Amino acid sequence: MNCKVRFAPSPTGLMHVGNARIAVINHLFCRKNSGKFLFRIDDTDVLRSKKEYEDAIKSDMNWLGIGYDETFRQSERLERYHEVMQKLILGGFVYKCFETPEELEYKRKLAISKGKPPVYDRASLSLTDAAIKAYEQEGRIPYWRFKLPNKTVSWNDLILGEISYNLNSVSDPVIIKADGTFLYTYSSVVDDFDSGITHIIRGQDHVTNTAVQIAMFDEISKGAYQVSFAHLSLLVNKDGSQFSKRLGSMNLGEIRAQGVDPMAIFDLLATLGSSLDTIPFTKIDDLIEYFDISKFSTNSPKFDIADIFKISRKILHSRPFSEVAHLGISEKAYEVIKSNIESYNDFSVWGEILQSGFNAKFIPAANEIKVLRLFTQKIDLLPKWSKEDIENALKAVKAELNITSRELYHPIRKNLTDLDKGPNVIDLMILLGKDETLQRMCKYS
Questions:
Q1: What pLDDT, in 10s, does the model give residues 304-316?
Q2: What are the angstrom distances between the C-alpha of 288 and each of 42, 65, 261, 263, 352?
Q3: Is residue 134 domain-resident?
């Protein structure tokens, strides 16, 4: 398949789960079909676009492992947008408009009050030269609309199936604002055409845009350019309510800071909304082979941030030591703590705990001091530092003090690690060694 896709975020905010889903699916579809991936920065919104957001998006892309073959910013292509615009003006496919926002809002409300769709009435097309001159003398600066053809646009969507859209039900889109800013609907079409994009994969909220943009593609390319579209159903919250990418910790930077494995995001977003099972793949190549865009449905999938953390834990527990060796834990230590690793942040936590001289902040109660003192005396006398001998010492303490297993293990664990839960206490003491264990226990000897 001849395949070239694009991911085109606007650097007007941080990358959220909704954005990431589009990036992930475009990436997987592209690599599945041995295609090209374009990473485009849609930064024509000068007032809201910020370099810090662009840098954050790039950082998130790199963390996720989404590589790209080409990249550019729309702000670098303004001359090209003007060039195409002049051709459209000469062809009579765009026209000047002078209404103020207040006048447009009045027209919209009036149409609705009469039971009509709030479609722009094309009043500016009938303006006389005298009327235009009068507006200009008033100081009004025109904005420009693309004149949609009087026809029905159809396409075979890769997810939604056959779609038809009567362009008479849509307002002629504004393509240049009065301040000279090019709008997404127009600049995106020029970019897609020039870049040779073959497949546009995005959310269902863009269906109307697609109908409009197909008309623009036809005009700019004189009918010679064809694009395939796939519109993903939109995410909803786990309770079925409308999903808001601004609600909760949906920011990828926040998710990343919690030590999530990036493959967990890939695994969930690559299958959410499809009939594919979510499998905790640890390698992207395996997920690429498994991915199938034809399995996506039109139903809105329920998104729960907790699912990402569940998948991440499964992935972490399945990773061999070679893939985490750079995180500062020895292989022997990794085998002991592996099942207790919840996130990548835990590696630094355990790295500190296992350091020689670690001093727990635990303050035991009087009955717990008895346990710690007696246990310290027992293990200090052990001739060998073996699992069997340590276990016998623990049994002896439990019997002498007539306490429960929790009353025995809890203060010892807290004194060794400052944690309420963790790996097997005996395995932990073997890992620490006799001298280090005694050093941590000796304050109660």
A1: 999 999 999 999 9
A2: 27, 13, 17, 12, 37
A3: no
